[in-house]
Specification:
The protein has one domain. It is an all-alpha fold. The C terminus is likely disordered.
Length: 162
Amino acid sequence: MRPDPFLHAPLDQCGPVSLADGERILLWMLRQWVTARVLGEEPGARLSRSAGALVSPRVATAFILMMTAIEGQVRRPLCVSPPCCGGYGDDEQRVIVACGLCPAAPDRADRLLEDLVVTPEAVTVMARFLNAALAHDGMALPVRFDAQEPSTAPVRSRPTLH
């Protein structure tokens, strides 16, 4: 078995420093999921091995359900950074912000996800479950959104959170 350089990627080095604990956990799990796919592994097994000390089984299950919903209807491959990257890619930001936003404004969460998936409403339901699981474990996600209507320009042309 080959060594896995990404298995123990430090959580505190994942993403921008301004992220809340719940956002950092989600970003780390998202990057672990994609790393598993790239390495030809089953993502749920990878998360079971590596996330046990970080999250509860409830959070892990909710995350797996959300990612399964995303993968089942993805419009295009997700663009995700390597596990130790200090940045925050557009697709990563869309998924994580949608998770935090879905209880307060599910329609805006849907709009964040509509470029990624065919039926964003289904993913938003799973994201809401994940949000509740994180809050139950003391890692509530912040609600981050601009009070103005989203522009019609592609998200890539607007600044990100980092």
